[in-house]
Design goal:
Shape: elongated
Largest sheet: 2 strands, antiparallel
Number of strands: 2
Order of helices and strands: EEHHH
Structural class: mainly alpha
Radius of gyration: 39 Å
Strand content: under 5%
Strand order of the largest sheet: 1-2
C-alpha cells in the first residue's frame, strides 16, 4: 500500500523482505496508479531511431544536387542586362545555353534559372536593339532638321 508523503506526494511501497517475495520482475512490471513509468531510452542525436548504424537519406533517396553556378550567373547577368546594360544580354543567353547543356549532362539543379536567364537575356538584347533603332531614328531626325534649317527651306 502506498502512503502519502509529507509533501502530499505518494511514496512507493517499502521493499519486501526476501521471505515474503521480491516483487515483480522488470519484464512484467506495470506502473501502478500514481507511479511513473521508467524513462524511455532514445538514441543519441545524429543516429537513426531504428538502431541502424548509417544515417543520412533513407534507401532510395539521393541527396539533392547543387545548383549550377553558370545558371545562376546567367540569371544575374540577364537581370543586369535588362535594367542597366542591354549589351550583356548576349552573354546571359550564352551562359544560359551552356549551363542547360551542363545541367542535362550532370543532373544538377538550376534548369529554371538557366531558362529564365536565356529568356530575360533575349529580352535585354531586344530592348538594346530597340534603343539602338530609336537612337538612329532620333539622330536622323535631328540631322534632317538641322540640314533643313541651314539650307533655308
Amino acid at each position: 500500500m502506498k502512503e502519502p508523503d509529507v509533501g502530499g506526494q505518494i511514496r512507493p511501497p517499502s521493499p519486501q523482505s526476501p521471505q515474503t517475495g521480491a516483487g515483480p520482475t522488470p519484464a512484467d512490471w506495470q506502473p501502478q496508479r500514481g507511479e511513473l513509468s521508467p524513462p524511455v531510452q532514445y538514441p543519441p542525436p545524429g543516429y537513426p531511431a531504428d538502431g541502424s548504424q548509417y544515417g543520412g537519406y533513407p534507401y532510395g533517396y539521393a541527396p539533392p544536387q547543387p545548383t549550377n553556378g553558370m545558371a545562376l550567373a546567367s540569371f544575374i547577368v540577364s537581370l543586369v542586362s535588362l535594367f542597366s546594360c542591354p549589351l550583356l544580354g548576349g552573354i546571359a543567353v550564352y551562359l544560359g545555353r551552356r549551363s542547360r547543356e551542363e545541367i542535362r549532362r550532370t543532373g544538377q539543379q538550376g534548369d529554371g534559372l538557366a531558362q529564365a536567364g536565356v529568356i530575360i537575356g533575349w529580352c535585354g538584347v531586344g530592348f538594346g536593339l530597340l534603343m539602338a533603332l530609336f537612337m538612329v531614328v532620333y539622330f536622323g531626325f535631328i540631322i534632317t532638321m538641322l540640314n533643313s534649317t541651314t539650307t533655308g527651306y
